Amino acid sequence: MILDVDIRHRQGGFALDACFQSDGRLTALFGPSGSGKTTIVNAVSGLVRPDHGRIAVQGRVLVDTKNDIVVPKHKRRIGYVFQEGRLFPHLDVRYNLLFGRWFTPRGERKASFDHVVDLLGIAHLLDRRPSTLSGGEKQRVAIGRALLADPHLLLMDEPLASLDEARKAEIYPYIERLRDEGGVPIVLVSHSVAEIARLATSVVVLSEGQVIASGPAAEVLRHTGFFAQSGLTEAGALIEARVSRHDEAYDLTVLQARAGTLSVPSLLHPVGTSLRVCLRARDIILSLKAPEGMSALNVLPGLISSIDIGEGASVDVQLDCGGDPVVARVTRKSVEELGLRPGVAVHAIIKSIAFDPEALGVTGGENM
Ligand SMILES: Nc1ncnc2c1ncn2[C@@H]1O[C@H](COP(=O)(O)OP(=O)(O)OP(=O)(O)O)[C@@H](O)[C@H]1O
């Protein structure tokens, strides 16, 4: 197990009671403001000492209050990347990066400087001072500095929150590479379901200091009810698809998933690239018959596997489309009127516009 957390902690009027395990290469902690994400991250890094409980990282116990174990912060080998990079302004990028190693025992310095620099695409920045870097570049250097300390876990507390959408889009591919090739598991605090849909392999959802869901990203994200307080509109199914061809005449790219073929606005990824696609539940409508005379390009036949009835007018209809899970958020009224129930064959109709290039991530193939 990469991360095993079972802690209780009180601060002011707030009570945290969090229990979850994660084996993911990138675990996202999601929840509304004040739900306890930073408190958990601080307890793992050693900035906060939980009142009760246990924390283990890669099998190594960092906190076990029953047995009076509290490993000091500097011995935990946890990398931390803050919202604002916190680089040393008087050192150039090279020395900021090298600073990361100083606290790691010599025999345990395994991360290769050149590999980390290459992974994060910062070779051309090595002689520059932080004040001359863009926000995204600063964050890449901050991530590099943390990695060069050979951490057992990398904590990222909303590392992209201060960046605009364009800068975020620039840095996502580096986080994907880090997840797939970096060799260090990551915990990412995020407010954005779109970001989680793109990056996470596991998700922990918090609400008022409690864990309300945790598990593989594809499993958690397709239950939109977990995201009711914020991010409901972005939740949906994660599926893997390969670029099968580019249709230049119509500026479209055709993807092949187990569920069927999907046409999306033209992508730059070469044929054969494996992509993670988020099919947002709110962008899908269901039809009992194969639609005709419709402008929607993407129609996936499937069988209803279950219906999640929660509070309110909407429900999640979970489908099995050729082995890919797909979820549609529809009204309870439609469920009744169409006679939807498990086992019924339907067609999921997805508007081409539902494929947001920002929600498409390159996947190493084992990240779902
Ligand atoms: N030192 C403290 N003393 C008292 N209360 C605190 C302290 N630090 C945090 N809190 C409270 O604990 C709760 C959880 O805070 P935390 O920062 O973990 O939430 P969060 O989910 O990370 O929120 P955000 O997304 O806004 O960063 C909040 O209600 C906060 O006001």
Automatic annotation (TrEMBL):
UniProt entry keywords in alphabetical sequence: ATP-binding, Cell inner membrane, Cell membrane, Membrane, Molybdenum, Nucleotide-binding, Translocase, Transport
PROSITE patterns registered for this protein in UniProt: ABC_TRANSPORTER_1 (PS00211), ABC_TRANSPORTER_2 (PS50893), MOP (PS51866)
UniProt GO cellular component terms: membrane
Pfam family, any one: TOBE
Any GO MF annotation of the entry: ATP binding
Residue intervals of the Mop domain: 293-359
InterPro entries reported in the protein's UniProt record: AAA+_ATPase, ABC_transporter-like_ATP-bd, ABC_transporter-like_CS, Mo/tungstate-bd_C_term_dom, ModC_ABC_ATP-bd, Molybdenum_import_ModC, Mop_domain, P-loop_NTPase
SUPFAM superfamilies, sorted: MOP-like, P-loop containing nucleoside triphosphate hydrolases
ABC transporter domain location: 2-233
Protein family per UniProt: Belongs to the ABC transporter superfamily.
Protein name (record): Molybdate transport system ATP-binding protein
Biological classification of the source: Bacteria, Pseudomonadati, Pseudomonadota, Alphaproteobacteria, Hyphomicrobiales
